[in-house]
User: Fold this.
Amino acid sequence: MKTTIVIADDHPLMLRGLSDFIASKGYEILGKAEDGRAAYALIVKHKPDIAILDIRMPYMTGLDVAEACKKYNLNTKVILITFDNEEELFDKAKEFNVYGYILKEFAIEEIENCIEHVKKGEAYFSEEIASYLNSKLKYSKSHITDLLTRTELKIVQLLSENKTNQEISETLQSSIRTIEKHRSNITKKLKLQKSHNALMLWANLNKELLQN
Assistant:
């Protein structure tokens, strides 16, 4: 029996690309929507196994839909797709029993794996997100202070404010090359993945550990 799915995204190209890809993998698409209210109506009507929702949609966000599903005891499992990596969104997602949370830049390559986990009742977070959530649990403020040098700590603090390498180099009066070398060392020390935005995401998720 095919897994049934409803998909919603307010970007038509993303919606079409994702639904075509999912259908090609043998899943049954019961409906597509470009806003949250329409997505929720489809979920209530069709009772799909899984709903794949963009977080930021008109009328109802993906989180609003997840909250409504929980409130009215709908059995549909929610997967959120987003560009957002703010900590409070993860917390709300967990509170509303969201089963999957994928960054949009990895959606196509991760969605099938995510669906297979969620079918079995297992939560799935994008690998990058999972590593930051794990490291958030792993490190205390004193640990971070011991682990990183004063300069490295300052760089991570600036990254948590979404500063670019150029802005950090100007603030610390160092070359961009030096800042990049520091960032590479910090990534190794924190045991993060070597993707271009790994450290930035980690810094955003651990802001409270970086405050003076």
Remarks:
- The two ends are 55 Å apart (CA to CA).
- Residues 36 and 60 are 4 Å apart (CA to CA).
